[in-house]
Amino acid sequence: MEKPQPERVKKILELLDQEYGMEYRCYLNHENAWQLLIAVILSAQCTDARVNIVTKDLFQKYDTLEKFANADQAELEKDIHSTGFFRMKAKNIISCARVLIERFNGEVPRTIEELTSLAGVGRKTANVIRGNIYHDPSIVVDTHVKRISRKLGFVQSSDPEKIEYELMEILPKDHWILYNIHIITLGRTICTARKPKCKECFLREYCPQEEILSN
Ligand code: SF4
């Protein structure tokens, strides 16, 4: 498959901007950088809605990074149980909180290298932090971005890291953060995994998938 034509990419981005606006928004509730980091760790294999239910109480009980660093692991496991993979997540959260205090003065670092040195933090989590907290151009490849970027003919790979690099080549930097926000919204409402509503989709004219489906 060839690279998508720049004109088609531009048109799709324009339509997404028109439909969903240009404001940054985050689906995971948080009041500061370390809360977002913990929320993203909890969101692995879990819905954002469930994470928001859990963090509502969690961030009241553990209202400082120090409280997470000194948490009893078994108790934290219970507190986050409903998000799944609670043992690994509790272990990673405690480790992250300790390292943030010991090595980063209690601040969440900004670079990919520093962020991915934290327990349980991969490129996706690091990019969520970079985009949402620091507004550094970064492309978050989640399940919606992975699925829909392939449908739109923007990427060929199914490996998230390769997809990130493929998208970097075709998306203008000022849309790296917005792209994820827009595609999540599209993926939850129109281009759903089970049954995409191509007939109602405002991108149908420019989506190769629509051609396949209507033939
Ligand atoms: S036309 Fe269909 S496949 Fe393409 S983005 Fe819209 S809903 Fe998804």
Structural class: mainly alpha
Per CATH, the architecture of the largest domain is Orthogonal Bundle
Number of helices: 12
What fraction strand? under 5%
Each distinct ligand: iron/sulfur cluster
- Quick check: average pLDDT? 94
- CATH homologous superfamily (4th level) name of the largest domain: Hypothetical protein, domain 2
> What is the overall silhouette?
elongated
Poorly predicted residue ranges: none
Computed over alpha carbons, the radius of gyration is: 19 Å
Description:
It is elongated and about 55 Å long. With 215 residues, it is an all-alpha fold. α2 runs antiparallel to α8 (123-132). The chain is built from twelve helices and no strands. The model has no long low-confidence stretch (mean pLDDT 94). The protein has helices at residues 6-20, 33-42, 48-61, 65-69, 73-79, 86-104, 112-116, 123-132, 143-151, 160-170, 176-189, 208-214. The longest helix has 19 residues, at 86-104. The chain folds into two domains: 6-24 and 139-214, Helix-hairpin-Helix base-excision DNA repair enzymes (C-terminal) (Endonuclease Iii, domain 2, Orthogonal Bundle), CATH 1.10.1670; 33-132, Hypothetical protein, domain 2 (Endonuclease III, domain 1, Orthogonal Bundle), CATH 1.10.340. Iron/sulfur cluster (SF4) binds at residues 148, 151-152, 190-191, 196-198, 201, 203-204, 207, 209-210.
